[in-house]
Amino acid sequence: MAVDITPQKNGGVLKEIIEEGVGERTPGVGAHVEVHYTGVLLDGTPFDSSKDRNETFKFDLGKGRVIKGWDIGVATMKKGEVADLICAPDYAYGDIGSPPKIPPNSTLKFRVELIDWEGEDLSPDKDKSIVRDIIKAGEGFLTPAYGSLLEVHVKGFYDGLVFEDRDVKFPLGEGEADGIVEGLEIALEKFKKGEISSIKLKSKYAFKEAGKPEYKVPPCVDVEYEVELKSFEEGPQAWSMDPNQKIEKAIAYKEKGTTYFKNNQYSLAIKMYKKVMEYINEDFEFKDMRSLRDTLLLNTNLNLAMCYLKLKDGFEAKEACNKALELEPKNIKAHFRRGMAYLELASPEIAIKDFQEVLKLEPKNPAAVKQVAICNDIIKKELAKEKKLYANMFDKFAKQDQKKAEKERSKLPDVMHGTLGEWGQEERPGGRDATAFEKENPNILMLNANGSGEFKNM
Q1: pTM metric for this prediction
Q2: Which of 63, 69, 147, 159 matches a 20 to 30 Å C-alpha distance to 285?
């Protein structure tokens, strides 16, 4: 018996189950589903069938890629289920139809088999490293923004065993401080209030190379979570704030960043410092507070540089220093940290210039003196290494040339001492046979300098 499955209960989509599916799960919004189907008009006239093409049909559910009736109907189906979906015109092709096979204002009947589905890929690179499968849909349309205070329940699984099961409350973006892995935070940005979903995470968005020994989770393994977003409180967004409020928010994020830095949580500190930038990036808003804004930007970029140096990211550290120096070209910390960044990038010949600039501004700076000496030592060792390398290279080439010359000489006749000629005779320069005297005294005969071929005693 067909039942009305439209949210409005207006008879737009009727569903009758022909064969029951397995399990309790149904695909959620964003799931990549695979179906077989046959579509007919109400008089039984067929107009389309995937089975006739012997090819399944795949689409992303709830994204408007198919008619409304399918987005509604397939979302209620279990794996392996076969059902008839009867879709009124407003839930099919409307008053236009789909000529020539589907007339305008047609009610259509589809027999659909849900073969299987994959969860929604939420990973930034779309490599299926973060996959969400909705168990229970959330309420409304709002989702949390960065900084929203979340209350969630997380249950983690590895190899079929539960390794954590707890309630946790944290600001979105700062979950690391409470043991929330990166992949869950990315996924939670898509959750609605009350949603329960299964989240499958590849290692790079879970515990990475470190694993989680206290949870008995080895390095480099994939894990799965069941997550419920119980509630969230969304604070004011930057676009709704006046300049004073933005400055206050930026200062608050900077203080959070400093706290995380002191706790050696450098990745979290970087997130906080980047939020500072978001609130005060547009300088035209801060005409009466330009000095305060610039000081805040300067200090934040210096702190960012220090965080990146701790993480051995020389490139990002250098970029942060460059931004600081745009604001204050003679800033000692910016020059020193940029020098350290260049050392991290294996460029001592550039790094030394920044350390020397520090000494111009502060001649007795002991840290800069030490780094100049370190740079000079590195440069000296590199030059010695290059010199040795080139010396070995030239020596090798010289030996090769010597061997080649000796090989070529071995192929030539000895014109001073004579060699056996083509006819087996001992020949002398000029092509004539050697005299008895010449044979007895070969070492005291030489050609004239004018090449006349005459012989003289030495």
Answers
A1: 0.72
A2: 147
**Angle at CA of residue 361, ends 357 and 366, nearest 5°:** 80
**Taking a C-beta distance cutoff of 8 angstroms, is the pair 156, 181 a contact?**
no
Alpha-carbon distance 183 to 189, whole Å?
10
State the pLDDT at residue 200: 97
Q: What is the pLDDT of residues 431-443, one digit of tens each?
A: 455 555 555 555 5
CA of residue 1 relative to chain centroid, distance: 51
Burial of 186-215, coded b for 16+ CB within 10 Å and e otherwise, reads bbbebbbeebbbbbbbbbbbbbeeebbeeb
Rounded CA-CA distance 353/383 in Å is 18
Active site residue 37: yes
315 is catalytic: no
* Catalytic (active site) residue 47: yes
Query: Which string of DSSP letters, residue by residue, matches 132-183?
Result: EEEEE--BSS----TT-EEEEEEEEEETTEEEEEEEEEEETT-GGGGT--HH
Instruction: Indicate the DSSP class of residue 420.
Output: B
Catalytic, out of 47, 59, 157, 215: 47
CB 77 within 8 A of CB 16: no
Question: What are the residue ranges in the chain where pLDDT is below 50?
Answer: 415-431, 444-458
Q: Which is catalytic among the residues 60, 72, 93, 260?
A: 93
CA distance 130 to 152: 18
∠ CA 32-196-272, rounded to 5°: 95
What's the pLDDT at 427?
Answer: 43
Concerning whether 242 is annotated as a catalytic residue, the answer is no
Asked about 95 being catalytic, the answer comes back as no
- CB neighbour list of residue 283: distance below 8 Å, 6 or more residues apart: 290, 293, 294
Phi, psi of 122 (to 5 degrees): -105, 5
pLDDT digits (tens, 9 = 90+) for 21-44: 999 899 999 999 999 999 999 999
Buried/exposed code over 409-443 (b: 16+ C-beta within 10 A; e: otherwise): eeeeeeeeebeeeeeeeebbbeeeebeeebeeeee
